[in-house]
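User: My instructor asked us to take a sequence, write out its structure as tokens, and then describe one feature of it. I'm not sure where to start. Here is the sequence I was given:
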Amino acid sequence: MPNKTIYVADDDLPLFQRAQELVGGNLSGAVVTALRRFIELEEGRLEGYDEIVLRVGRDGVRQVRFSGALLGEWHDVNDTRIEHIQVYRTRKGKYVMHAQYSNWDEYPTDAGAKWLKDWKDPKSWRRLLGVGQQDWGEFFFVVVDSLDELKGKLPDKFLQRVTDLAEGPTIEDLDI
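Assistant: Let's start with the prediction itself. The structure tokens for your sequence are:
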């Protein structure tokens, strides 16, 4: 196995020592793991994918992370709830539906009291009116192989828009 020498600046030496402690002495393994992650993220970025972090579960208390590109977003505020749905294409060719449903009957009662007390605060108005990121409700994360599997889970118009975006380039370069 060939050897490679890496020269480390004195200022960076504590970083390498800490990495070696965390991996149990095998600094080479830590460097290789970090380089694999770096290459994966950078190659994905060059292909148009970003690192996506989404909240999942009741009130979004957990998070998931993957490499993907946003295909479309749907936001609806109605009499019963706020719906925020996003669809992503993953780097491995799958599709992700991330949906948040915040029912009005589950609206945090302490938030209502705060709204009355802090009526001049724009954040209170935004939360009450369902504008921006809601921090309550159910957060769903679904991975499928094809967009057809999302029929019935997405509004028809939104599914058609996402399908159209997935089938063609988002930007067409013209040589005119």
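For the description part of your assignment, you could build on this observation: Residues 119 and 125 are 7 Å apart (CA to CA). Try explaining in your own words what that tells you about the chain.
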